[in-house]
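Researcher: Sequence recovery benchmark, item below. Answer with residues only.
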């Protein structure tokens, strides 16, 4: 399984190309790797771990669903490949600014929360790990945006309780702690 995940990591890294993380000079792939590692603390299901590595590829690169599927079937059976792709699609934001330029961020995020509420438990598990990794990074690098982002995360988490319960509790606790930390910093 590690060989397969390594190949999927390379595919995702190639897809993201020269993209960097927003707040650090790190290559973008560091985030999907961290998301996959968080998920791996709770599950060893190959499609879920593969989806964690690929979770931003459709949203942030020109890579298509067909390209992902064609690649995945070279590494895993068709059912696993199809399920991995299903998870990636579920994790891909639909209500983005490019598609809904007249909507403000609050409206887009509310619609996105309603959409992801209907997704599978496995995609919600990956979303927990995604939120967890992003929260930790954002609170360290962008305290102004962190206020908005953390409240968005809290609202999304209320709607997506179907995933791994231990990870869910961990991310809810982390978001709450980050919000408290932000309030303490604002009081200083």
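Model:
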């Amino acid at each position: 399984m590690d060989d397969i995940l390594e190949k999927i990591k390379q595919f995702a890294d190639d897809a993201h190309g020269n993209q960097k993380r927003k707040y650090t000079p790190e290559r973008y792939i560091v985030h999907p790797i961290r998301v996959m590692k968080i998920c791996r603390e709770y599950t060893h299901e190959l499609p879920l771990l593969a989806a964690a590595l690929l979770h931003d590829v459709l949203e942030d690169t020109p890579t298509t669903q067909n390209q992902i599927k064609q690649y995945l079937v070279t590494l895993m059976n068709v059912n696993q490949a199809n399920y991995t792709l299903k998870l990636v699609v579920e994790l891909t934001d639909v209500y983005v600014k490019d598609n809904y330029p007249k909507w403000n961020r609050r409206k887009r995020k509310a619609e996105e929360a309603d959409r992801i509420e209907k997704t599978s438990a496995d995609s919600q598990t990956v979303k927990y790990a995604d939120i967890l990794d992003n929260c930790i990074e954002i609170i360290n690098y962008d305290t102004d945006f962190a206020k908005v982002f953390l409240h968005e995360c809290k609202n999304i988490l209320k709607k997506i309780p179907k995933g791994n319960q231990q990870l869910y509790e961990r991310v809810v606790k982390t978001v709450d702690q980050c919000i408290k930390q932000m309030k303490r910093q604002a009081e200083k």
